[in-house]
Design goal:
The chain has 413 residues and is mainly alpha-helical. It has 17 helices and 3 strands. Among the domains are: 1-47; 49-136, Receptor-associated Protein (Up-down Bundle), CATH 1.20.81. 76% of the residues lie in helices and 6% in strands. The protein starts with a strand and ends with a helix.
Length: 413
Amino acid sequence: MAEFTYIVRTSKGSRESGEIKSDNYNTALDELQVNGNTVIQLKERDTSFDFIKPFLDRLSVALEELKNKIPLNVLVFFTRQLSTMFSAGLTIERALYFLSTEEKNKKFKKILLKIADDVKKGLLLSSALENHPGVFSNLYISLVKAGEVSGKLSETLEELSIYLEKIEDTQRKVKSAMYYPVFIIAFLFVVITVMFTFLIPKFKNVYDQLGSELPYYTVLFVNLSVWFQNNFFSVFLILIISFISIWIFTLTDTGRLIRDRFLLSIPIFGSIIRQNILSKFSKTFGILISSGVAVMEAMDLVIKVVNNRVYELAVKDATKNIENGVSISDSLKNTGVFPPIMIQLFSTGEETGEIDNLSLKASDFYTKQVNASVDRLTSLIEPLLIILVGLVIGGVIIVTYLPIFQVGAAIAN
């Protein structure tokens, strides 16, 4: 029997919270609604070890993302349509059912019907979305929750759709910039694999007939080729197992921290990742504050949005300092991971009382930085890859044919 925590609004209008034991989620929901209660939130209680639960949660989300991968443009269109219908006077339940009948994506259609059923049973939209973490990100759920708390759900959904459109535009630029290098690297991998598996072993017979002493690098290549040919499936299996092991390790807190620190340290790419995180942080914080959410609650929601363990820990430290009376800008500064420009904007916002507007301006600044970095990366990566391909293939060809050239020169003399 599972344990659940709940928050309900009674028929008299009072707010109550507690725990309930039930066979499953739907049964618990029905039991809470028996006396006319409106269920605001219902979550299964964490009864596992602290170090296991986060890992299992991330594994579950990762598997659901693989199972129910929804294109971002579909999510953008849904959010904008939902905002329009809700502002026009339709209830969330009716809007969801209408959108589900028009939805062409079969996976998303089923998800919308399930969300509509949960809303019909009395759950808030944000709570219904939380049941599909592989589809709706922490950012999405946090902003919807902010809209519900502030009573500005329609405006928040509109802001969210605009923000998702910007994310989609940035992702499209990044993907278009990466198509060419990924293709080149994959092509290079295939060429090298074919050469080591089929081409160089044939040259070994030619070298044996020459009978002359081979250059050091040629011997190294031949031995490596023979070893690779004899252990091809073992190497392939080890690579697959290593990839899966690393992926599972990165689902743990320690693994995420190591991975995220490494990603942030990569030249150029690390800068783009950092600027993207700062853009998401500033945008989410600004929208939450402008929607009337308290600073402490906004910080708790932002932690779920940054999607980087280094910044998650930094935001947690900043939240503790704010709770102890330290200003927002000084709390962010003390973490050592937020840049001076952002801290200055937040400091000015605190002094003028417009921290939400300046936070949004900080987000626009870092979004432009991301776009500029992606454009620069696109212009640099193509010639660098051409040079890389030329060096690798040229080096292999030279080392392969060098003994033949030496024998030809010896015969000519």
